Q: What sequence folds into this?
């Protein structure tokens, strides 16, 4: 069994690189991909297949996602299964949030 080791890179460092339009390392990209999978609660998605770092809108969306990871609004309610009614509502809101980000990336992709 092969395990891929993920370097500990603060989101702020990656965000600064994106803002300055610096080249992201393989480790930066791997971390971004894992963050998005975690945020979207979907292991099958790979934002790296959708995102275009030369697209300023995509960079902005990526910055927003990295910020969402740093400042999770639902963190006071972890673990969510302790709040069954709120969890049902969360799942609906989360799915809409996730779909919005994916649609924004697709709608702003260069043809």
A:
């Amino acid at each position: 069994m092969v395990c891929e080791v993920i370097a500990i890179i603060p989101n702020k460092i990656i965000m600064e690189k994106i803002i300055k339009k610096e080249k992201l390392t393989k480790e930066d990209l791997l971390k971004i991909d894992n963050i998005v999978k975690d945020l979207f609660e979907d292991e099958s998605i790979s934002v790296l297949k959708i995102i275009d770092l030369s697209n300023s809108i995509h960079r902005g969306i990526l910055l927003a996602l990295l910020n969402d990871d740093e400042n999770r609004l639902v963190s006071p309610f972890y673990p969510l299964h302790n709040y069954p009614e709120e969890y049902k509502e969360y799942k609906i809101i989360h799915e809409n949030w996730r779909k919005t980000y994916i649609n924004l990336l697709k709608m702003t992709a260069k043809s």
Remarks:
- Residues 11-107 form one domain.
- The chain has a mean pLDDT of 88.
